[in-house]
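Sample A.
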Amino acid sequence: MMAAGGRTRFGKQLAKLSVMPTIFHPHSSYHVNRMDLVLLRRRRSAESGFSLIELLIVIAIILIILAIALPKFNQARMNAQETAAIRQIDTIHQAEVQYYSQFGRYATTLAELGPPAGGGAAGPAAADLISDTLAKGENTGYVFSLKSTPTGYSVEAVPKAYNNSGRRTFYSDQTLVMHQNWGQEPATAQSPELKQ
């Protein structure tokens, strides 16, 4: 339907809209309605960063993931340290066999299996068969002790911090049979045998 002056009803409404104050947008070749400019600025500010709620949600998700993963990580670390302690006891057994073949007796301390002080020559007091760290009695989160027994020797390994560096204690002797105890009490020859 045409109105007077050749304009349609839709054309009149369009003419009313274009009467609103306009400004020139510096980055384009067209005029922008002030309302459009306000909306454009609001949209840009909303897109420029994260809201507080969004940040709190992300932090909450990270904390939930950590709460699930951290105990698993600690358990895996303790398993690795327990396995390393078993390997260290095997190393002590091998060193004792070598020490016995060289000196005709078993070593009575870890220091006798370790390197000589000051880089001297190896001998019965320091045979240089194990690392200096293991000879000092502490390695991989465990404390090791070597004792002389009437039939040979015994080795004990106890976690430095129970339930942190390990959950098991270990015992072995010249028979090479490994025993374990799931608890703070040191393992003995009567403790359950470790099946390897």
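Sample B, a different protein:
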Amino acid sequence: MDSAALTVIGILIGILLFGIKSGIGCGFSNITMREILTIGGSYFFLALLFGSIADRISLEALGGFSSVGMGIHILVSLLLIVTGIYTQKKWNSGKDVSSHTFLVLSLPCPVCLGALAVSCILLASTLEISGLKIGFLVGSAFFMAIVGSSFYFRKLGKTPDTLGGIMMMLGIYYMLGVMFIPAYMQTKSMSISSSGGDKIAILPLLVCGAIVLASFFLANLRRHNQ
């Protein structure tokens, strides 16, 4: 399998898992179908925006914001943990605040925005088609992943207490992510000129996606054992 195919597959897997992350927030909260479609639509239009400027942005430019990005990453981690605790506490006291707190998990965060940007840039350089078409494809994939997973999780019949647990687990895993993302960026800067650069570039999507998926299963396992 050539590097172009590996890049496309890696990006699709990353999009699916980040879509599931947002779908968890939508599916386990008390929101309407219209609000779910709005969340999915926000990712679609952001992908169109990134796609339209993909030809003018490089991975090296994104790496230049890594120091600021790590600070934001830590803030998002803490926000997820605190909001998860708040969601569970309110639910256990008889009040459902999930229609507000789900936004912390489902709205595009810096990690998701980075995944959108990297997806558009890599696909534009790999497939050699227009940025708007790339944005449309990436946005459509995000939209379908978010809406589809939202309906699936809603059918599970879980309560906002589950949402709070997942948010806390994600916050912890995001915090752990701060430990290895800077190391990746240094490795990428040293190997950007090598022929294997495109293969390495899909790693953050896969790793961050794996974090999302692992946190979901661990949270469910914790609920099952209680």
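Observation for Sample B: Residues 192-203 have pLDDT under 50 and may be disordered.
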